[in-house]
Amino acid sequence: MINKVVQAGLLVCIIMLMVIYQLTTRGEVLFILLLLLGTYLILSLHQLTRIALLLLFISALVTGLVVFRLPTPLVPLREASTSFGFLAAFIATLTLLRIPAYRSRIMRQCGHVILSQPPGRRYPLLSIGTMLFGVVLNMGVLNLSASMMDKANSLEAAKGREWLRNLRRKRMLLAALRGFALLPLVTPMGVGVAIILASMPTLGWAQLYPYTFTVATLIFLLGWLSDYLGGPHPLKPPAVADRHSLMPLLNFALVLIGLVALVFICAWILQLRLPQAVLIGVPLGCLIWLGVQLRSIGLFGVAPAIVLITRRLPAVLGSIGNEVVLLGAGAYLGKLSVSLVGPEVLSGILGMGTPAAASLAMLLMVTMSLLGLNPIITASFVASAVSRLDIPDISLPAMATAILTGWALAAACSPFTASMIILSRVTGLSPSRIGLRWNGKFVGCCLLGGMIGFFIFL
Hints:
By secondary structure, the protein is mainly alpha-helical. The protein is 79% helix and 0% strand. It is built from 23 helices and no strands. It has helices at 2-24, 27-44, 50-69, 74-95, 98-103, 105-115, 119-137, 140-152, 162-181, 183-186, 191-199, 205-229, 247-270, 274-293, 302-317, 321-340, 343-350, 354-370, 375-389, 396-413, 418-427, 431-438, 440-457. It is globular, with a radius of gyration of 22 Å. The chain starts with a helix and ends with a helix.
């Protein structure tokens, strides 16, 4: 317990120091931040999985290559270390939202509403609901969704028909997985957007969002069509009395809109990039959301909210070492890898033009993920390469959209992603069965459609 308290305290300090560094860019602040980050990683070693430990080991090897092969290694090392620190602060900040989210009555009501819907409406509501929950819970939404679906999809609910129960489980799992996979494309508070915007300083969320929202809408509609064609279709729809009101979903959507608006306001007032503003807006939004829940206790709920957050910090932040390492080390490796690859190689690849380069980036994201490489590494590498070369004929919004689309499709099919591993652990099904056998054709159609779209519209 003491170790978790220290880890949580270190992460809180890292968040505050990263905010100060983003506002002042003082080198000594960054040095202290990285020192605390190193201490945090050492304290977390006993919690890390083999994959996380392997990633740290590879990071150390690549660091050695950079030191011995590059004439000026300090510049790429500082840039990569800053990315590691920022991602550690970013994921810790988003994790704070779990405190008010797990206490929220609205979220519990949303779960009941989604699972009570007839088959024709269940896919869109479960997909969108998982996506909305994912904004505040991140990976935690998969545990929550899978648990809720397992309770609702009983043999009694299927009237003793095992085949129907299995089919419902498949359809609901795919709806939740595809909804979660859309997160890199739809939320400005996601890790994917943070990496892209940090790697491409001249690109803004306003330029990127029309592209990503269009792609996310098309993928969602294709998934809905795929679910419909997978049937079955009952001849008699459920009685209207069995359908719950959709107001909880609307209320939860308003909560999320308020959180996102708060982040945008912080970015506007403080003149920060959107990912940087998340480090300020999300903790503030977390305090407000929790304060509203505890407003009956007194002092507008602010003082009780601060007390509750303080008490819950060790439990919430003391166990995210694997997430910090997977995200931070992934971005670190992606940044350093670009410095080790000759610019002439990158120029030759990106010089093919935007449609071909965007298609290649999307394919690369999915292929590398299927081979076991974390999408964060590939995304950081490609985004950093595009920004570093600054080729005039390459459209940054299109390339960023291609990377995020590839990331979304990788999350929907790769057996090695964290999302698939979580679903496998909760359901007892193999990751390959969920990602490749059940979802492979859908992802293949999305890839083909994406490449055709790039060549037609770009």
